[in-house]
């Protein structure tokens, strides 16, 4: 996901604990799912896992993780979070390659959010590559 904004920072991130359901939508606790990637104790093994963890990083507003998992050639200087936006769900629609046996991959998804209380979604096809053995986000194409 590449959504950035220059609006001023607002309220704190969603209150997620290690025992909370993971925002990425998988049936696991945050600490056992995307939280371990955010903390650096594990690396995402597939580009889908990285996509899910990046979505969860938007939910918990973990700019450091988003920047760390962004390809240096396309990484912005920073990530600003829109205080009016609340991420509400993620649907993975398609993946190509992106396993332990690949060096590139794509994930097509729909990320649901509310902006000032109005529901909307972001439909995107994200591209990933391996950089020094780890998956990183490179670019995206907005599908609609």
Q: Find the count of extended strands (DSSP E, 2+ residues).
A: 4
- Rg is 14 Å
What is the number of helical segments per DSSP (H or I, 4+ residues)?
3
First-last Cα distance:
14 Å
- Choose one word for the global shape: globular
Beta content comes to: 25-35%
- Estimated helix fraction: 10-25%
Sheet with the most strands?
Answer: 4 strands, antiparallel
- List the strand order in the largest sheet: 1-2-3-4
Order of helices and strands: HHHEEEE
Poorly predicted parts: 2-12
Mean pLDDT: 91
Question: What structural class do helix, strand and pairing data support?
Answer: alpha+beta
Structure, briefly:
By secondary structure, this protein is an alpha+beta fold. 18% of the residues lie in helices and 33% in strands.
Task: Explain what this protein looks like in three dimensions.
The protein is of the alpha+beta class and 144 residues long. It is 18% helix and 33% strand. It contains three helices and four strands, in the order αααββββ. It has helices at residues 34-39, 47-60, 63-68; strands at 85-97, 104-115, 118-131, 134-142. A hairpin with a 6-residue loop joins strand 1 (85-97) and strand 2. The two termini are 14 Å apart.
Which key phrases capture this entry?
single chain; 144 residues; alpha+beta; four-stranded antiparallel sheet; 3 helices; 4 strands; disordered N terminus
């Amino acid at each position: 996901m590449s959504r950035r904004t220059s609006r001023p920072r607002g309220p704190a991130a969603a209150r997620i604990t290690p025992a909370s359901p993971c925002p990425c939508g998988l049936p696991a606790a945050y600490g056992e799912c995307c939280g371990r990637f955010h903390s650096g104790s594990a690396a995402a093994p597939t580009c889908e896992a990285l996509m899910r963890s990046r979505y969860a990083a938007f939910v918990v507003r973990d700019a450091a993780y988003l920047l760390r998992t962004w390809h240096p050639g396309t990484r912005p200087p920073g990530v600003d979070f829109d205080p009016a936006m609340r991420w509400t769900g993620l649907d993975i629609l398609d993946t190509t390659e992106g396993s332990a046996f690949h060096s590139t991959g794509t994930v097509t998804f729909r990320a649901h959010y509310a902006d000032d209380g109005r529901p909307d979604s972001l439909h995107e096809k994200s591209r990933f590559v391996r950089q020094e053995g780890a998956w990183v986000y490179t670019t995206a194409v907005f599908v609609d």
